[in-house]
Automatic annotation (TrEMBL):
Protein name (Swiss-Prot/TrEMBL): Diiron oxygenase
Gene3D superfamilies listed in its UniProt record: Ribonucleotide Reductase, subunit A
Pfam families, per database record: AurF
Signal peptide span: none
Amino acid sequence: MTANLTRKAYDERLRTLSEGSVNVNFNPFTDIDWDDPEFAVDTSDPRWVLTSADALGAHPWYREQPLETRIRIGIWRWAVIAKVGMQFENLLMRGALDYVFQLGNKNEEFRYLTHEITEETHHTQMFQELVNRTGVDTAGGKRWFRQVSRILPLFGSLYPEAFFTGILAGEEPIDHLQKGALRSGEPVHPLPRRIMQIHIAEEARHISFAHEFLRLRVPRFGRARRGALSVLFPLIMRVLCDVIMIPDKKSAALAGIPDWVIKDVFWKSEAGRKMLRELFSDVRMLAEELGLMNKVSRPLWRALRIDGRPARFRGEPAPLID
């Protein structure tokens, strides 16, 4: 476990993150030219074909489909991810508002989190606008998630360490998927490319805050509370990862994707299992630092198939060979 983060150092990092939000920020309706012909959703544009960074895009079934089918499924996939992302960001904002409501005066978390809430508001607008432009009528996350999301924000104040662990569980997979698409070197349509560039730039601060929040708090927990979080940590990661990454079966069937393909991609195939492990290399590093990897939790990470080598630094690209 690393040395405890002092409150002074924590506050300084939050001030740096807050200044970053002031100096580098985006508005989806001024920083994206939605009416640019290059950004039009054209169902004949091959740049909508999914890259191999997406487990579905890398699957042999998808790659064997006619170009028209791959484009249609690519547009559908981007719309579903954007809708789920919008719903997750909405949950984050409500939980963060619940958390800041009870903060005392002169608490640096208030300023930073209200910056983050502002940015997440813009992200929800950006994601929903993409969904609207695609014409894909998707409900987003699975029904159980949409229903449970009504009460999950209460954990912002009731159990904040679990809530911000959940935030990482949602943010890390989306961040990984977007960076993978941009790093792939394969063509990506300019509209999702611009959205990803904006989202990655601002999400870096949000992920940093969640890491620092846990670094401040977890080392101060007693043995029982830290032990409970060590077990909850991988469970939260896996459950919310599946919410973000796995499309609803009914929606996938309507898009023409066989059920066996969804099962294979998420997460039975070798490529799918590899991606699942890679999604959480950063949080495995964090769990090691916080002493949340122990004889009880390690087997759970392995059973959930999200174990593996921790990242050496945040945002480290996945190795080509395990």
